[in-house]
Every structure is written in structure tokens, then in C-alpha cells.
Amino acid sequence: MHTIEYHLATLDDLALVTELRIEFAILLGGRLSSQDETMLRQLANEYFAEELNKSYLCWYATVNGEPASVAGMVLRRNPGNLKNPSGRWGYIMNVYTRPEYRRMGLSTNILQKLEETAVSRGVTAFELHATNEGEPLYLQQGFEIHPEPTYRKFV
Question: Which of 62, 76, 110, 136 could staple 71 via S-S, CB 3.0–4.6 A?
Fold first, then answer.
């Protein structure tokens, strides 16, 4: 029997949120050098310390008191348009469940809690980039693949 609890992250959870982000980054991109991991940890800590529960929402789950799953969302407002008149968007990111806790519905429940919290704050549209493993979850939750290509430029 597992005791599962869900939590809206606060500044008291800064270390936990940062640690799960680092785990997710390593899962996606492979092992980091100690210098890169230190830098990524510092950048994440700075961001979360400033933005958590302001422009960044984060829910996480614990199983028997152990951190098991997390998801975050950046909140932003663009000019409204015909599909999203409010212009309020939630960009979902860092949806991650530790391997030993997968197939327990944690990501599904966290994603729902994240969306509910965002909607209560006026968000009316959501977007995300998915890994191949995450795609079934998002399709099940009503997300659709958007055909618009993404372009990036780093300076």
C-alpha cells in the first residue's frame, strides 16, 4: 500500500524542485560534467527562488514521503486572439516521474492539478513540448499536436 500525496511547491520546496529538474535534464540530455551540473543547479535555484508561485507553478507528488514526480508551468500573457481571447498561456515543462514510481498515475494527476491551478489564475490555453514517452499522456489529456514549426535562435 502506497501513501501518495500531492503538493503545490513553495519556496520551502526549492531544493526538491531543483533536484528533480536536474534529474530530468540528465535523463533527457545525458550525464553532465560537474561544472555544468553546478551551473544548471545554480540557474534553476535562482529562477525558482524568484518565480515560484508567481510566473512559475509547480506541483509534485510524494510516495510514502519520498519525492516521486513533478511538473511545472510557466505562466505568460500574450495579446489575445480568436482562439485564446485572454492571451493567458501556460507552458508545461519538466513533467518527470522517477522510474521506480512510473505507472501509478502520478503524472496524470499532477498535470490535472497544474491545469486546475492555472485555470483558477486565468490561464485559458496550454502548450508544451513532449518527449516520445510523454506523448500518450498529453494526447490522453486532450492536447493536440500543433503543426506550426518551432524556430529558435540563441544569442
Answer: 110
